[in-house]
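Q: Got a minute? One more chain.
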Amino acid sequence: MFTRHYPHWPPGQPKSIEVPTSTVYENLAANAARQPEAIAIDYYGERVSYARLKREADAFAGFLQARLGVRKGDRVLLYLQNSPQFVVAYYGVMRADAVVVPVNPMNLADELRHYIEDAGTQVAVVGQDRLAQVQPLLGASRLQNIVLATYSDYLPGAPRVPVPEFVKAPAFAPNDERIFSFKAVLSAACAPGPHLARSGDLAVMPYTSGTTGKPKGCMHTHRNVQSTTIVYLAWRGAGDGAATLSALPFFHVTGMQAGMNGPLHKGATIVIMSRWDRDCAAMLIEQARVTNWSAITTMLVDFLSNPNLPKYDLSSLKVLGGGGAAMPEALARKLEDVFKLPYVEGYGLSETMAPTHINPPHRPKRQCAGIPIFSTDARVVDLETFRDLGPGEVGEIIVDGPQVFQGYWNQPEASAQVFIEHDGKRFFRTGDLGYYDEEGYFFITDRLKRMINASGFKVWPAEVEAMLYAHPDIQEACVIGTRDPYRGETVKALVVLKRAAQGVGPEAIVEWAKTRMAAFKVPRVIEFVEELPKTATGKILWRKLQEEENRRTS
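A: Always. Here it is, folded:
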């Protein structure tokens, strides 16, 4: 067990935790019984109590079971922006003993088809702003039914903060008997059957990609989810009356745990934003007396650049943290000047249901992943021999803990490749390179896996390449990351055009890509080349191109 960091452990906190045997849904049920009138959700000023949230989750579960035929272990797609409907559906799916498959609402129809077919989902919960992407798949894939959410159903009569137009949009009724309105689903008030799920059953299956380019479902049990649900606010600190600004997307494990499951387990209020808006965020902090906020670097850069910032009362904020990308030194100093708080960084992956490491709140370090959290063993090992490395030696970070996933859905070979037996334990290979210092703090230096981190969103080059090859004028493509002053990294494509291509410019390829892939995956930089370097067996030397790009932009 790695213990070098123990002298810097958060005061008063145990080194290990007993993960509850209850399901994630039962967290909500317990708080609804303990404090029924307490506010669970604040949505642009509209407040939803714990009792109401449980009642609606139960009704949603009952409809899934009685009307849509959802059974224990079935996968249900959530294709929604942050909203009360996301929370209701999330807990409703779990109450129905089914598995949540959260999907980025930026994904388009071709991408959605893979999630639907791979997970075998027959029911999707969809925001009406994204219906056009999903409706063509009804009946043309495994998808049989849609529950359609209108975000304005949960808005107060006169919001005191700016609300996005798509959130204010009124309901519309598609002429399709396979589509049910979210409001009608709740009004049906179907009673769910007995809650049969157990700690070891699957609860959530977020998708992540790898070098094959095909997104893979990460199988997480209720125990996996609970192991980071119960620690988030305990580690970072949250007293009675805590309110969390939930601006990070719930489909992503960090937003899911830090912005939804963690606070709801604690009995706190989640202050939900459907889309980032720096003025709205400041207003919500002031009006809802937000105490906790997890944010990514780009979000905070935008927040701090707001000339109106001094007029807002941000004094309620007590805890500020996040992850996804290292916080630049200059920005960290500015954050401390504005908030009088340290920015506490953490580290985790989709495969670990968010954190494996977080900085000690009382003693954080900058540009640092932190120390292994409760019940988590982390090592840095040699890339070839897998022997443990010492302080300052760079190797692959491997982790063992209750948050580590069960494997990839229907991918036994890929699952086997990411686990190793080490020191008598089954460790997960993160694919990230790093080291720890003399005090046991971990630092990320590079990626063993091929991945681009654009504003906290993971982009897998092989997936983008596969889409680019569908362009009629592209002969070959290699996707790499390039530095970006705002996003940290952005997507660049080196493209070899077909000989017959006529008058094709970089802008045309970018516009074409925008119609076929999520915006964060679209190559922002296109470079035409005569040929791509290859190995003797014909494999493109992407690493060589990435290293050249890093040198050029350093």
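A: The mean pLDDT is 93.
Q: Perfect, thanks.
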